Amino acid sequence: MARTRRPHLPRCAVAVTALALIAGGFAAPPTTAAPAPPAQHPTDLVNPFIGTTNEGNTYPGAAVPFGMVQLSPDTGHNTGYDHADTHIRGFSTVHLSGVGCRIGGDLPVLPTTGDVTETDNAKYAVPFDHADERATPGYYRADLGSGIRAELTATARTGVQRYTFPATAKANVLLNAGQALHRNRASEVAILDDRTVRTSITGSGFCQATEPYTVHTLTRFDRPFTAHGTWRGGTVTDGTTTATATTGRSGAWLRFDTRGDRTVEATTALSYVDAPGAARNLRAEGGRSFDRVRRAARAAWEDRLDDVRVHGGDPEARRTFYSSLYRSFLAPNLGSDTDGRYRGWDQRVHRAKGFTYYQNWSLWDTYRTQAQLLALLAPRESRDMARSVLQIGKDSGWLPKWGYGTVETNIMTGDPVTPFLTNAYQQGLLGGHEEETYRALKRNADGVPPADSPAVGREANAAYLEHGYAPYLHGRPHAKPGDSDFDHGASATLEYALADAALAEMARDLGHHEDARRYAARSRAYRTLLDPATGFFRARDGAGAFTGPADPAHSVGFHEGTSWQYQWLVPQDLPGLIDLLGGRDRTNARLDTFFAYDQLLADPARTAREVWVNGPYAYYHADRYNPQNEPDLIAPYTYLATGRPWQTTDVVHAALTLFTDEPTGMTGNDDLGTMSAWHVLSALGIYPVRPGTDVWGLSTPLFPRVDLTLDRRHYPKGGFRIRAPGVTPDRRYIRAATLDGTPHPHTHLTTDTLRGARDLSFTVGDAPSTWGTGKDAAPPPLDPGDARR
């Protein structure tokens, strides 16, 4: 069933250039050439409102690629903006795209008129209408119900605001230091002169995490204000210049006379280091007009998005594709100031030497898709990101699991940092740091952080190393804030085993052969979970007994999923898993049930929306594919290992219909670009089927042609073209593939193969073929010989 369009939902409010006329509908006079349609810029195709409802948790505001600042409206939703809301509480400086818990929203700023009497932003919030809203990469605008136009843009470390007021002697800008999306701990505000305001904001949050972080801001206006004051709690005081709060609200208000000049511009710089750092960032990146910053932000996005040139296909498919590509470049974020200083996880100030320091690490999510996409399209930044993760290990004493700003949150389970870093190694991003990376990963994989470390690491590692599984010990007191692997012993076991496989390959490459054999043997720990009575994975308790309901749809011990969904998280040894499940035919039958395959063939879009999807947080009590969450992202590609690659295409293309050009057009939380990267990679037809390694699975691209511009330092050819002439929803089956003109019977590539090639071409048809079904066609598992030598 096609989803009904809702005309009032906003687009990016950009002028879409004309499409080429359909041949046969018009014939130009022989002497007159039809004008070519104007070129369409990728930035004009991006809709930042996608995912702003139904818990996609994206934000529509202004940022540059990987910027420290994400200046965006907050409407009352716990992650910032919800399209269903009707009031804006302020425009704040920090947001994370698509996270599932409250965080950020520091320093909401709101323009108002009249007297300042209220200090709670939920009460002074102003109405707005989506018809008066616009967003493009690096720019946001809203005409507020108060008669004020608010415009936002950004540099890497500053957010720039332009407010156009009615003609009034009481035009105000409220800087709210004491309210944010997170749990506020303390705030300070100081009016330094008649143009400048400084704040310091300490907060904590993100799910169960409690470790505090501090962000410093400095805001500079383009002209003097005529009056000012501060507030503490609910008390507003005219003429004061400072306010502090250990709990509750504090802030400052500045007044401007807009009877002559109705426009006020302000630039806010951030630093996670200290107040002087914010001042240096402001000097380095401030001092430019709003329009100049806006043009620079657009140029930065155009340069980034233009590296992927899509040809043909449905116009909405192109818009959703470029919108996902845009969101894939929003994080991780700059953590170092312009002088290279950053605040480490030891809460000390360090200086990054030879690399740029990044922060915000949703590793449980991003190691599956976004890390690989960035390695392909942004290898220089990806190298620095990997080095930043290594630096966190040096500064804090342990590698991260889920990091926000300057702190570990310990959210989610397993060992995501291992496949994240081994992916960087396998993609050639850690030259000169291979052994350093390996030593850090080996320590992480073989141990547990000490009690005085904020990190939990592989919390259940002792039991895993002794027995081959992480036990499910529900209700066990948490030793540290965050999630516990003991609460999710079954999925933690699978995640540990996947990480061990990736580390085994790295160890083998570096000549650590004994370690390689040891980690390869551990990578088969998934077998300890298979219950012969049910044929499904089940959690084991502390004594080793299977525990919880036998029904795999109601299993326990799996984080944000069920045994039905996690059974495919064995990319390191799919042939071994297939044998355990009774061979290819039985595995295919189980896959067909899991994907509701017969229904999918009859109506792909309806199956995706009504059979697979049961709500953004419906993780449990399910026996079907959940395309909205990370544990299932790899599942459609399992058919590559069972000799039915055409079914991978069927499932992937059905899942792609869930991405649409409207606020509801995203599947679940975007999780710092994870779901968006899945969309981009699946639409390209190349997908990282073995996280932490260099293996890419192949399926039918969504578009007839895509040209990738690649960094020559990592990809000597400088570009890669993917072609599937004539592909449509009905002509989606690969009949043959060639790599630089040479037949390619395999359903996978390696990064080295990709580096040495320029053209991957598919011949497509309207029915499945024998392509990719040969004995050696499937993506290879980890070499089992490593476990036996």
Question: How would you portray this structure in words?
Answer:
The protein contains 21 helices and 35 strands. The protein has two domains: 43-302, Beta-galactosidase, Chain A, domain 5; 307-698, alpha-1,2-mannosidases domains (Glycosyl hydrolase family fold), CATH 1.20.1610.10. Helix 6 crosses helix 7 (379-396), helix 8 runs antiparallel to helix 9 (434-446) and helix 17 (604-612) crosses helix 18 (645-656). The strands form nine sheets. It has a ten-stranded antiparallel sheet with strand order 2-5-6-7-8-17-12-11-10-15. The chain has a six-stranded mixed sheet with strand order 18-30-31-35-32-33, with helices on one face. Strands 4-9-16-13-14 form a five-stranded antiparallel sheet, with no helix packed on it. Helices cover 26% and strands 21% of the residues. It starts with 71 loop residues before the first strand and ends with a helix. It is globular and about 80 Å long. The chain has 789 residues and is of the alpha+beta class.
Terminal CA distance: 54 Å
Radius of gyration: 26 Å
SS summary, helix count: 21
Count of structural domains: 2
* CATH fold node name of the largest domain: Glycosyl hydrolase family fold
Alpha-beta classification = alpha+beta
CATH class of the largest domain: Mainly Alpha
Major beta sheet, specifics? 10 strands, antiparallel
